[in-house]
Design brief:
heterodimer; A: alpha+beta; NADH Oxidase; four-stranded antiparallel beta sheet; 6 helices; 9 strands; about 40% helix; about 20% strand; B: alpha/beta; TIM Barrel; Methyltransferase, Methionine Synthase (B12-binding Domains), Chain A, domain 1; eight-stranded parallel beta sheet; 31 helices; about 50% helix; globular
């Protein structure tokens, strides 16, 4: 079985379009004067300098998919009908987790309590989108390795808390990915800390599938 | 003639042809999924020998051993530990297949782990892993090495160092770039080229990930800066899913048609990666085997790099500022932080200097009683990921420089190597091994020369010594040696003479540690700035200075214009217009009434000037209540309308709300005096429920409601149900707002409402948060608002109906 891979510093281009979209920008409708645009860009740049992306990835064989249960080695399992359907043609999965780190959260919290709420919401949106894009990066990484095997990941990924995959699944993900090694903790209510941290599951298509 | 020279001679004559894909060919030969390819080849030697032979017959000059993943970590995943023997036998198979009709390249690729500072694999461990593989490949008798499909520049460095520390065999390094022109770790082809060729790679290039079209661009970008031959091994186009399998679209003819374009861009070794076959290589050989080989256009390059950027020291480039602040001399806070092993100030200083326009960062960690080796390693790791600027390693301690160069994932500039005998003897070989540039400091063991004439002699002596290690003038930056004019009024003139001679006669790049010139003088800033301008005119390349000094940076930019190093003064004009924009932002554009100005400022989210505008309006006689009711509330309502229409997006709405909040705070004391206290519109408790730590949405609601005259009792986040009930009992609010972001915490809203009702509290609840829907809110007996603007409307309706109910009761 492959070991957990840790990525101590993930570097990605800032996903500007997604950040603007998350903040409610609609092309052709929303009108941003130059001064405000400059301010928002400055905050996105600030967010980028405060975010230190770290990640972990793990390739695991699927022991069995039984009804809605995806059974993994060593007894770990996830329960979700939708995920089971997604992984129907896969014999392996990739688990992944990333975090933006604590510094960005400290800045957001300091601003959000009233110091500069405008900046806080831009930092918040930027952090959410950058963390999400870092999962794309991990998928690209695995795809690059898989290319040699003439295999690839599914185009979609699934996160705990969405659809019928309970948020509590995040505890198993946290454990399997050893996320504490990259500074991610998990609360009783299955919330990852720092807040801008995410996990996801995707499948590796079997050769010729 | 040794093999390396033989390959170099071949490369002078023609383009060498490399083999094509091995992985996809092995699958064609029946290799099943999930096996270890290297061991499968040993168990099925005929399959891999057929592939090698077919490529050699197709015209490949160089065959890669099938040892791509034959390192300790990859083989270990399949339970194999005999790394050396596996590698040796893979070479034996290749040799048996092609004999001496082709050269055999020992193939090394990624361990699958990123190397520190980008991943969890320690640098020395990575070097050790690759050395083990190199020894196996050498035992098998390879002719050369190839380090390929690397996406982490640090792992490529580790592999290259491993080869170079064992043998002098010809070694190619190819990185894999995405279609956006960067590796997954953010390294571009020119940055990788500058790092790898200076570290001793004999050829550098790209393979896999993209087809030949993208690689033409990568090769063309690298060629002007290459001192070594360039390599391209593209895929047969981009992979595409066809039915149930991955296919590559380019047939041999189309693939080969790109050979001439790659040759014209300057490639010297060319082959194929995923999806290519012997037929592709045969077609490529026919199309480009006779194309003239473009030799490297230069023998040396004056350039440094980080993991993600490079800086070329051209004569035409503007003066470069080396940020000087990461140096603990005279900085107590930084000294203490370095001693404590904390690095937040270092990170902040790097970030600020980069934003202020530094082109490189000087790094010095010399503090009394510090473990300098450990500290420099930590700082290099931090800055390698925390800034894209190349680093200048600054230390009088030779071991510190050596430790830094070993792990720095780029080409560094050493500050400095002087004519002191021990330094020359020990540092020059270290600088040569890691391919670093160095600042040449014209002092000796016994002398700090005062005159330019004597400095010239020492510069020549040091350079002569450096040349014997392979350094050229492109690799050296001469320090003009700045001495204070407080001790010798002629000192500055001698320094300027040294700079002028170095730049114009010796033809070398130059640097000054600017601020020494004014040591002991009053008003040092002006002396430093004037000295910079004069040195610039003398031909200075770079200065070690503080980029936060605005006057200095402005003078530098003006100087760049005068020295014709800023084409059409574009940089100067752009920089000046940014300042002008800042200045304009605080000045009203057209004459309008004070009320209109405040309305406009709120609508535009102008928080910087709003207090000033309120003061002007009050001074002009506007009543505080009139300002609030007739100007501010209509302005924030208009912002809300624009948000509803999506003409504004969230940052604009919040900027407006914050402008209004600032204005209200200014008016409030006068409002109280004017009316004896305005009656509040209602009191609202806000809380993010137990278990949930996400509260930015709740803070936005708080801001919006406060602006509309509500009193907010904010209980914060992760608030237990009992704490909410206690607050209801104490404050008797008009409304309670609950927020939650997660499905696991959303259910805690119901508990709060249940407890409130059980306690006899009838106040209305409003619920919100990412996962909360109108239906869910209704199911737990709460109203719902999707955002801040709607929350204001819903709260108004709830208060109105709640008061009516109270009255009717």
């Amino acid at each position: 079985m492959a070991p957990v891979l840790f990525f101590e510093s993930i570097s990605i281009p800032v996903p500007r379009k997604n950040i603007y979209r998350r903040l409610g920008f609609v092309k052709g409708v929303t009108d941003i004067p130059a001064a405000q645009q400059e301010e928002i860009e400055r905050y996105i740049g600030h967010a980028s300098s405060l975010i230190h992306l770290k990640g972990a990835g793990l390739r695991l064989p699927i022991t069995e998919i039984k009804d809605a249960r995806i059974i993994l080695p060593d007894g770990a399992e996830f329960e979700s009908l939708q995920l089971a359907k997604l992984l129907a043609n896969c014999n392996e999965i990739v688990l992944m987790g990333t975090t933006a780190g604590r510094e960005i959260m400290n800045a957001i919290e300091a601003d959000a309590t009233g110091a500069n709420v405008t900046r806080a919401i831009v930092l918040d949106a930027a952090a959410s989108e950058i963390v999400d894009a870092s999962l794309d990066w991990i998928m690209d990484y695995f795809n690059q390795s898989l290319r040699r095997e003439n295999r690839r990941l599914l185009g979609k990924r699934y996160s705990a808390g969405y659809g019928d995959l309970f948020l509590e699944t995040q505890k198993a993900m946290h454990h399997l990915l050893q996320l504490d090694r990259i500074g991610i903790e998990i609360t009783e209510s299955s919330i990852l800390i720092p807040e801008k941290s995410v996990t996801a599951i995707t499948g590796i298509k079997a050769q010729g599938s | 003639m040794d093999k390396k020279q033989k390959i170099l001679n071949l490369l002078k004559r023609r383009i060498l042809i490399l083999d094509g894909a091995t992985g996809t060919e092995l699958q064609r030969q029946g290799m099943p999924s999930g096996v270890c390819p290297e061991v499968w080849c040993l168990e099925n030697p005929a399959a891999i020998e057929d592939i090698h032979r077919a490529y050699q017959k197709a015209g490949a000059d160089i065959i890669y051993t099938c040892a791509f993943g034959a390192n300790r970590l990859k083989l270990g995943q399949y339970g194999f530990t005999n790394v050396k023997e596996i590698n040796k036998q893979l070479v034996v198979l290749a040799r048996r297949a092609v004999g001496n009709r082709a050269l055999i390249a020992g193939d090394i690729s990624s361990t699958g782990h990123f190397v520190e500072p980008f991943g969890d694999l320690m640098f020395e461990e990575a070097v050790d892993i690759f050395k083990e593989q190199v020894r196996g490949l050498l035992a098998g008798g390879v002719d050369l090495f190839v380090i390929e499909t690397m996406m982490d520049i640090q792992e490529a460095r580790a592999a290259l160092i491993a080869v170079k520390e064992i043998t002098d065999h010809f070694t190619m390094v190819t990185m894999t770039y995405e279609t956006n022109g960067y590796t997954l770790s953010g390294t571009d082809p020119v940055t990788a080229l500058i790092t790898l060729q200076s570290l001793g790679a004999d050829a550098v290039g790209c393979n896999c990930s993209t087809g030949p079209e993208a690689m033409v661009k990568f090769i063309a970008a690298m060629k002007p800066h290459a001192t070594v031959p360039l390599v391209a091994k593209p895929n047969a186009g981009m992979p595409r899913l066809s039915g149930k399998t991955t296919v590559y679209d380019m047939d041999p003819r189309e693939f080969a048609s790109w050979g001439k374009k790659l040759a014209a861009a300057g490639v010297n070794l060319i082959g194929g990666c995923c999806g290519t076959t012997p037929a592709h290589i045969a077609a490529l050989k026919r199309a480009s085997g006779r194309a003239p080989a473009l030799a490297p256009v230069r023998k040396s390059i004056s350039a440094v790099s980080s993991a993600r950027a490079f800086k070329i020291f051209n004569e035409e480039s503007p003066l470069l500022i080396i940020g000087e602040r990461i140096n603990p001399t005279g900085k107590k806070a930084l000294q203490q932080e370095l001693l404590d092993g904390k690095l937040s100030i270092v990170r902040q200083m790097a970030r600020e200097q980069e934003a202020q326009g530094a082109a490189l960062l000087d790094v010095n960690v010399g503090v009394h009683k510090i473990d300098e080796l450990d500290t420099i390693r930590k700082v290099i790791r931090l800055l390698s990921t925390g800034t894209s600027l190349p680093l200048v390693i600054d230390s009088p301690n030779m071991e510190t420089i050596k430790a830094a160069l070993r792990i720095y994932p780029g080409r560094a500039l050493i500050n400095s190597i002087s004519g002191e005998k021990q330094k020359l003897k020990k540092l020059l070989p270290v600088a040569a091994k890691y391919g670093a540039m160095f600042i040449l400091l014209p002092v000796t063991d016994n002398e700090i020369p005062e005159t330019a004439a004597r400095r010239k002699e020492i510069i020549r002596d040091i350079f002569r010594a450096a040349r014997s290690f392979g350094f050229s003038k492109d690799d050296v930056v001469v320090d003009g040696l700045v001495m204070t004019v407080a001790a010798n009024t002629g000192a500055a003139k001698e320094t300027l003479k040294t700079v002028a001679w170095s730049a114009n006669s010796f033809k070398c790049r130059t640097v000054l540690g600017l601020s020494n010139v004014s040591f002991g003088m009053p008003e040092r800033k002006w002396m430093n700035t004037a000295f910079l301008a004069m040195a610039q005119a003398a031909g200075l390349t770079m200065a070690i200075a503080n980029p936060a000094d605005r006057e200095l940076m402005k003078v530098k930019m003006a100087g760049d214009v005068f020295m014709q190093k800023d084409r059409d003064a574009l940089l100067y004009i752009r920089h000046s217009s940014e300042y002008a924009k800042t200045d304009a932002a605080v000045a009203p554009a057209v004459k309008s009434s004070p009320g209109q100005d405040i309305y406009g400022a709120i609508l535009e989210g102008n928080r910087d000037n709003i207090i000033n505008l309120v003061d002007i309006a009050l001074a002009a006689g506007m009543s505080p209540s009139g300002l609030v009711d007739d100007i501010m509330i209509p302005a924030i309502n208009r912002a809300g309308e624009l948000f509803d229409q999506r003409k504004y997006f969230l940052p604009q709405l919040i900027a407006s709300a914050e402008a209004m909040k600032a204005a209200l705070a200014r008016v409030e004391p006068r409002l109280k005096r004017e009316e004896g206290g305005r009656p509040g519109k209602g009191a609202i408790i806000l809380a993010t429920v137990k278990g949930d730590i996400h509260d930015i949405g709740k803070n936005i609601i708080s801001l919006m409601l406060k602006n509309h005259g509500y009193t907010i009792i904010d209980l914060g986040k992760d608030v237990p149900a009992k704490a909410v009930i206690d607050s209801i009992r104490r404050s008797r609010p008009d409304i309670v707002g609950l927020s939650a972001l997660m499905t696991t915490t959303m259910v805690n809203m119901e508990e709060v409402i249940g407890l409130a009702r059980a306690g006899g509290y009838s106040c209305p609840f409003i619920a919100g948060g990412a996962v909360v829907t109108k239906a869910y809110a209704a199911s737990i007996g709460a109203a719902y608002a999707k955002d801040g603007v709607e929350a204001v409307r819903v709260v108004e309706q709830l208060i109105e109906s709640f008061s009516k109910r109270r009255i009717s009761k």
